[in-house]
Amino acid sequence: MSYTSETPFDNIESSHHYVALLLEAIEEARREVDEEIALSMHGDAERRKEALQIVAYNLAKLSFHMKTSGRLLNDLRTLRRLLLAERQPMRARAKVAGAT
After folding, report:
1. Residue 41: which pLDDT band, with cuts at 50, 70 and 90?
2. Does residue 4 fall inside a structural domain?
3. To the nearest 5 percent, what fractions of the chain are helix, strand and coil?
């Protein structure tokens, strides 16, 4: 009987992948908003331009937090591998490399 994941957060790897996909979507939205801001510069839509600038600012903050979350998930993945001996410490790898 195999376990099937019900959410994208069932393990660190799938959570990391989900955050990466979310970051891609955020970056795409940022590009679109930047284009809209550039187009609004040519008209009298000052209020719209200001609203788009706020959206761009919030997307930039969200992007920063998603990048930070991705790095934290990567750190957790590395620590889990180290704790579960899925990854050899540097000293052990050096000894193995020196023995060959």
Report:
1. confident
2. no
3. 75, 0, 25
